[in-house]
Amino acid sequence: MKRVSLTQYLVEEQRLNNSIPAELRLLIEVVARACKTISHAVGKGALGEVLGTAGSENVQGEVQKKLDILSNEILLEANEWGGHLAAMASEEMESIHPIPNRYPMGEYMLLFDPLDGSSNIDVNVSIGTIFSVLKAPEGMGTPTEQDFLQPGSKQVAAGYAVYGPQTVLVLTTGNGVNCFTLDREMGSWVLTQRGMQIPADTKEFAINASNSRHWYPPVTRYVDEMLAGETGPRAKNFNMRWIASMVADVHRILNRGGIFMYPADQREPDKAGKLRLMYEANPMSFLVEQAGGAATNGKQRMLDIQPTSLHQRVAVFLGSKNEVERVTSYHQE
Ligand code: AHM
Ligand code: MG
């Protein structure tokens, strides 16, 4: 089989569809290279003295793991010098990170969750990096948080890496979804799946069921109906999977379908869910839509939401189209 590298894919995609200008290609290659470095650090585990907590908290009040901080630094350093970016933002940093003056400023803005699935780091379960790329608004001066607050439909690229039994990179630039596998001996990303598609129907769902007593009625109804199985209103049996790393759950769904949910619940009525809109829900929703699936917050299309702050949270329903539409319609009834 002829191997197509990430670079070759990006160059040919630009030639065919004019969708990946040189600066965006550089950006994607730099992010992919950083993911390679993170994958290497993750793979060392205890031998690299990278496990455990760092003794600090991020802006969301969550304990930071050593690898959270290391991954954040790897992505920042990799992306500062190339001249392709105006600013970055991350789950692990309260405010945005403008490109230092000593480097030229580019027209893109990069957001990331450097290491998603933090609770799985120390137990050797798949974790990953999620990223989202926006364009700087026309005429932007010194970048501010406000410049990042664009709806997900404005993303020009999005992707994630999974650090699991294999390290993979899943990418969209708005023209379908492709998967690259890291060849660990060669150190290169090789195209292994073209045009990933999520089937519209599924028998698999993912939700943290330990929160069920706090759910709002539409979510309870939807999950109860699935749990009722063959003799219930859905007249079929469903299976449940929950990895607690969004990257790994979404990767399963892109490969064989399913629905992933992280709803808002009644514990803290003011909190719109757990996951973050700008660097978790939006990039994943872009990928899912590009693969023929759907993504909402229960009420509206995820990618249409106008963000109001960098770290805002959002309820998430994404995956197989017919299931996402069903649970969204329950919220409207
Ligand atoms: P993180 O960004 O701090 O790792 O949190 C996000 C993760 C998601 O990957 C995952 O879907 C969810 O949190 C798991 O939540 P729970 O702890 O309720 O299982
Ligand atoms: Mg995360």
Q: Number of DSSP helices?
A: 8
| Tally of structural domains | 2
- What CATH calls the topology of the largest domain is Fructose-1,6-Bisphosphatase, Chain A, domain 1
Uncertain residue ranges: none
The percent of residues in helical segments reads: 25-40%
What is the structure about, briefly put?
Helix content is 31%, strand content 24%. It is of the alpha+beta class and 333 residues long.
Describe the structure.
With 333 residues, the chain is an alpha+beta fold. The chain has two domains: 6-193, Fructose-1,6-Bisphosphatase, subunit A, domain 1 (Fructose-1,6-Bisphosphatase, Chain A, domain 1); 204-332, D-Maltodextrin-Binding Protein, domain 2 (3-Layer(aba) Sandwich). It has eight helices and 17 strands. It has an eight-stranded mixed β-sheet with strand order 4-3-5-6-7-8-9-10, with helices on both faces. Strands 12-11-13-17-15 form a five-stranded mixed β-sheet, with helices on both faces. Strand 11 (204-206), helix 5 (217-227) and strand 12 form a beta-alpha-beta unit. Helix 5 crosses helix 8. Residues 91, 113, 116, 280 line the site of magnesium ion (MG). Mg(2+) 1 binds at residues 91, 113, 115.
Task: Give the arrangement of secondary structure elements.
Layout: H1 6-17, H2 22-44, E1 53-57, E2 63-65, H3 66-80, E3 85-90, E4 97-98, E5 108-116, E6 127-135, H4 145-148, E7 157-163, E8 167-172, E9 177-183, E10 188-193, E11 204-206, H5 217-227, E12 239-240, H6 246-256, E13 259-262, E14 275-276, H7 277-290, E15 294-296, E16 313-314, E17 316-319, H8 321-332
Helix pairs in contact: 2-3, 5-8
2,5-anhydro-1,6-di-O-phosphono-D-mannitol binds next to strand 5.
